[in-house]
């Protein structure tokens, strides 16, 4: 019986770099895109022997902006994937799309290629905020691309938003979500703005925290978001993610549940049989050795049992359902109450964690201080 696998394909190109973005991405010309796809095809095909043991149930094109690729280039990537891997008939196939790059012909091609889920980088419904963020699209572009996607037959659309923007109030954020809900989506991701080093935002706001919403405002924004989206038919299933029934991101759940996934392309990260590794982020090295995965892999780490336990906890607790005590014992042959006795006692007592039957999960207050909780599940040394 073949083992289950997720595939992640990294497309590093975008129209232009957003002011807040620290992802591996840049604006590339057509010649560079063609060269990259040629190399990516070779890397994909090099996994032919490895792929014999696996069946792919989730496929995710991320970036960058995958929708910036010309249709024929995406078609070539999909052809290489299908030549190499067995794809489940009902596999979830997601493509990240910037509303400013949507074209009717592209959307129709996506459907033809088997893409059945679009993750749209909306980020804000207010044009002044989109300009601040350095986005190439307007809210009107999103509305147009949304209509085209529906007309092309997509019934699984996700939208990304960024909250806690400079100067943003709770009232302004409420208006954002209320406007967004006028355009029905199946899935919503809301990420609180983080000022990352090396970005335009870091130069502008890195030492000016007073220009950002204070902690209490960000807390109110987060709590209101969950309550409001629930009233509109969404269930929060992870710290930053909300979905209608049956529309959770199967690929992202794979990360939090520590299931195997293979990352292909520049910088692609993988987790296979408790071994974590990443492809090189160096363009020249990737282009030179794309046919030999062993030569482009970096940061290879085989996780010992302690590392596996740590990940089981801090990744699993990102889900609102939390983790299963039975699953912990089934995986490691040990009782979670003995391995993490003091940590569990501490957070169950102070209310950051809650327990219901077999499951342990973050409380509402625990979610707000999740990084602090996660840190305590790391073993010393």
* Biggest β-sheet: strands ordered side by side in the sheet: 7-8-6-5-4-3-2-1-9
- Helix/sheet category: alpha/beta
Q: Find the count of extended strands (DSSP E, 2+ residues).
A: 15
Question: Uncertain regions: pLDDT < 50 for 5+ in a row?
Answer: none
Mean pLDDT: 95
Percent in helix: 40-55%
Terminal-residue CA separation: 39 Å
Radius of gyration: 21 Å
What does this protein look like?
- The protein has helices at 30-45, 48-51, 71-84, 104-113, 127-133, 139-151, 170-180, 200-205, 215-231, 250-256, 283-289, 293-296, 305-316, 325-332, 336-339, 341-349, 364-368, 370-375, and strands at residues 3-11, 54-63, 86-97, 117-123, 157-163, 187-192, 235-238, 241-243, 261-264, 269-272, 275-279, 297-302, 323-324, 353-356, 359-362.
- The mean pLDDT is 95.
- The protein is an alpha/beta fold and 381 residues long.
- It is 42% helix and 23% strand.
Can you give keywords for this protein?
381 residues; alpha/beta; 3-stranded antiparallel sheet; 23% strand; globular
Task: Write a compact overview of the structure shown.
By secondary structure, the protein is α/β, with parallel strands linked by helices. Helices cover 42% and strands 23% of the residues.
List the helices and strands and how they pair.
Blueprint: E1 3-11, H1 30-45, H2 48-51, E2 54-63, H3 71-84, E3 86-97, H4 104-113, E4 117-123, H5 127-133, H6 139-151, E5 157-163, H7 170-180, E6 187-192, H8 200-205, H9 215-231, E7 235-238, E8 241-243, H10 250-256, E9 261-264, E10 269-272, E11 275-279, H11 283-289, H12 293-296, E12 297-302, H13 305-316, E13 323-324, H14 325-332, H15 336-339, H16 341-349, E14 353-356, E15 359-362, H17 364-368, H18 370-375
Parallel strand pairs: 1-2, 1-9, 2-3, 3-4, 4-5, 5-6
Antiparallel strand pairs: 6-8, 7-8, 10-11, 11-12, 13-15, 14-15
Family: Belongs to the anaerobic coproporphyrinogen-III oxidase family. HemW subfamily.
Subcellular location: Cytoplasm
Main location: cytoplasm
